[in-house]
Write a structure and sequence with these properties.
Strand content: over 45%
Helix content: under 10%
Structural class: mainly beta
Distance between the termini: 40 Å
Radius of gyration: 14 Å
Length: about 130
């Protein structure tokens, strides 16, 4: 069973930065496409970023392009979300997710929640104005 543990959330002022980490265990990390989603109070969960198992392909939601970056370190079984120029509307619980992409191309990534097999517990990010 794959386990995902997010860290790095917290309280930051608008314009600041945070780096979220998602450490995985219980599976072969390099087989998984990874993603980040977020859910603000009273809103549906939304896609933030995804990265293929090889790291060669990535996608970001339009709302975070130019501010957020997704990356992965397959040697450390960890995926990261670097968040810069944070805005109050970025306030949400951020979730890491994994999709078994063993039989997918190295460039495969997923952008919708149902495509993912495993989820972390989430980490709170609060951006004050």
């Amino acid at each position: 069973q794959v386990q995902l543990v997010e860290s790095g959330g917290g309280l930051v002022q608008a314009g600041g930065s945070l780096r979220l980490s998602c450490a995985t265990s219980g599976g072969t990390f390099s087989w998984y496409a990874m993603g980040w989603f977020r859910q603000a109070p009273g809103k549906e969960r939304e896609f933030v970023a995804s990265i293929s198992r090889s790291g060669v392909s990535r996608d970001l939601a339009d709302s975070v392009k130019g501010r957020f970056t997704i990356s992965r370190d397959n040697a450390k079984d960890t995926v990261y979300l670097q968040m810069n120029s944070l805005l109050p509307e970025d306030t949400a619980v951020y979730y890491c997710a994994a999709r078994d992409a063993t039989y997918k191309s190295g460039g495969y990534y997923a952008t919708t929640g149902p495509e993912y097999d495993y989820w972390g517990q989430g980490t709170q990010v609060t951006v004050s104005s």
